[in-house]
Amino acid sequence: MARIPAPVAAVRTAVRRGLADLPSDALLLVACSGGADSLALASAAQFLNQQGSFSRVGLVTVDHGLQEGSDRRARSVAAWARDAGFDPVRIETVSVAGLPGGPEAAARTARYEALSAAATELGAAAVLLGHTRDDQAETVLLALARGAGPRGLSGMPGRRGVFRRPMLDVARADTRKACAALGLAPWEDPHNSDPAYARSRVRASVLPVLVDALGPAVVSNLARTASLVAADSEALDELAAAAMVSASVPEGLSVPVLAGLAAAIRSRVLHRWARELGAPGGALAYRHVVAMDALITQWHGQGPVFLPDGIVVGRRADRLVRVVPAHIK
Binding positions for ATP (predicted)? Predict the structure, then answer.
C-alpha cells in the first residue's frame, strides 16, 4: 500500500479528531470556496465518508457576487463536488448590499447566514470550515491591533453552534501540499492578496516579518495563545453567568453586588446585561462597558450611559436600570 503523504495524513487526522463526537449517520456539510484550505478539508471529509466514518457528506459553496466570474467559480466547485461523490451539493448566492461593516465583514455575515440556513434546511449536524493555524495567528494579531480583550484574543473557536473548524492545528502550508499530493487544483482568491484588506496585509507583510524576526514557531505560539485565552475566558464567562444571577434585582442590577465582584467578572456581567437589553454585540465597545462600570466604582451623581441602538442605562439609588429617554434629566 502506498504511503500517505504527511500533509494529507495531517489534514485527515485533524478532521477525524474534530468530528469524533458526531454519529456516523450525521449529515456533514463542508463549506468550500475552492481554495486550498477548504479543498483539503473537503477531500478529508470525503475520505472519512468513504472509510465509513460518516455516511452523509455534502458541500456548500457561497457566491458573494463580489468578483467577475464568481458564479462560474461556484459552478466549477459544485461540479467537482458532485463528481467526487458529495451529496447534497448546494450553491448559495448571497448579496452583501446593506449589510453593516466593510466588504470583509459584510461578506462574512452573508456567508455565515447562508451556511446556517442551509444547515437548518438540510438537517446538518455540522458545517465544516477550513480555517487553519495560520488563520488563527492572523486573527490574534488583528485582535491585538484593535486592542481587543480576551474575547478577541481567544481567536476563532473550534466549535460554535453548528460550525466546526477542525483544522485549527493544521498549517496552511500543509493544506496546499495536501492538495498538490491529491492532484487538486485550488482557486486563488484575489482578495487574499489585496492590500485593501487588513487580513491580507497581515498575511503578506506583518506575519512574515514576525516569522523572520522570531522564528517559524511564532505562528504556532500565536494560535496557542488563542487556545489558552479561550479556556480562561470560558471559565470567567461561567463565573460571570452565576454573578449575573446574584446581581439581578427587579428592573436592573444591584450596585452593591456588582461592586463586590472582581473587575474581570463585573465587566462581563455588564456586557452580558447590555446585550440582554438589546445592545448589538458588534457595536458594544469597551468604552461603553467602562462608562457603565464608572456608575458603580466612580459614582458621583453623573448622568446616564448611552449604549448602541438607543439604549440608555443609569443609576437609581443602589441599582443600575434601563432609563426611558423621556426621564433623562
Answer: 33-38
